[in-house]
Write a structure and sequence with these properties.
This protein has 90 residues and is α+β, with helices and mostly antiparallel strands. It has one domain. The chain has two helices and four strands, in the order ββββαα. The structure holds zinc ion (ZN). Zinc ion (ZN) binds next to loops.
Length: 90
């Protein structure tokens, strides 16, 4: 089954949208939020915007999860992810 794109790292890692799936690449818990500047309760009050900056810096949406994430598989990589990485320079 084709997976859904994580709103933070842009990888195709989510089984569903809005059902609290955890992205294995950035560890974001997806409650279906799209608003990039909304403090996200199930992600320790981090916004999608902050989460992206943290992902580029630490490899996880929050520093505390940096050891719980993994690199994306080739089939999970999207243009959104590539653009993010290019702009962020990791
Ligand atoms: Zn992600």
């Amino acid at each position: 089954m084709r997976k859904f794109i994580c709103p933070v790292c842009g990888c195709r890692t989510l089984q569903s949208r809005g059902e609290n799936d955890i992205c294995q690449v950035c560890y974001w818990q997806d409650d279906g939020e799209y608003d990039e500047s909304f403090p996200n309760d199930c992600n320790y009050g981090v916004t999608i915007k902050q989460a992206r900056a943290n992902f580029l810096k630490y490899g996880a949406y929050d520093k505390q999860f940096r050891k719980s994430t993994r690199k994306p598989d080739r089939y999970e990589i999207t243009d959104i992810y590539m653009k993010l990485i290019d702009n962020g320079g990791i």
